[in-house]
Amino acid sequence: MTVYLVLILAGLAAGALNAVAGGGTFLSFPALVWTGVPPIMANATATLAALPGYLGSAWAFRADIRRGRGLPVRLVLMVSAAGGILGAALLLVTPNAVFSGIVPWLLAFATAAFAFGPAITRQVARAGRGAPGLPQSAAVLLAVTTYGGYFNGGVGILLLAAFGLIGLTDLKEMNGLKNLVSSVLSAVSVAVYVAAGLIVWKQALVLGAASAVGGYIGAALSRRIHNVKAIRVFITLVGATMSLAFFLQ
């Protein structure tokens, strides 16, 4: 019962955080590891649990994606699928012991990206760089989606920073593309994880259901929350604490 209670609380909090500002993986992944799930399987299961929220957000932003004049949606879909498959394949060939050693660095990197990503994106936008060509844009997107297929933590803010580097400036379009890319890369990587038997289904169902409820609550509360900066500081502290805990472990 303690295990399921921890998963429910972590899922509720992760879903709410993802709806408001992102960073839910900082709670869902460590919770799965704490319950005894090996790190690679915990990473795969946390990605599956986050997928319904990505799909719902992508659907909510569908009009902004269609109106966007940035990257061609077909190219985004193809590169996202390729990156998700490539990242998942890299995870499959990574031994558990090696991944356990990488996890603290991945969490620390995701925390830093979450903390400084928005500032970097704003700086790139202010710099007014011309948009690179489609091959360069596709290469940047492929690198980020490969990371997302390998480890889901912090992928949303990395995508926003990548879109800023690519030259996009419309925040609604960027958010729409972010959710679309997250949905596609997570869906294909989860398909690889399922085929490889990496999903812990009992924990996935509990965590996923709780995340969906938390996401609904978070979406409702987000309209009443005005101090999003304080929430981002809180999530950054959570990520830093989890990173330190994994380093010590």
TrEMBL record:
Cited InterPro entries: TM_pro_TauE-like, TSUP
Mode of membrane association: Multi-pass membrane protein
Main localization, broad class: membrane
Annotated Gene Ontology cellular component terms: plasma membrane
UniProt subcellular location: Cell membrane
Pfam families for the chain: TauE (PF01925)
Entry's transmembrane regions: 40-61, 73-92, 98-117, 138-168, 180-201, 230-248
Key words of the record: Cell membrane, Membrane, Transmembrane, Transmembrane helix, Transport
Homology family: Belongs to the 4-toluene sulfonate uptake permease (TSUP) (TC 2.A.102) family.
Protein name in the entry: Probable membrane transporter protein
Organism: Cereibacter azotoformans
Source species taxonomy: Bacteria, Pseudomonadati, Pseudomonadota, Alphaproteobacteria, Rhodobacterales
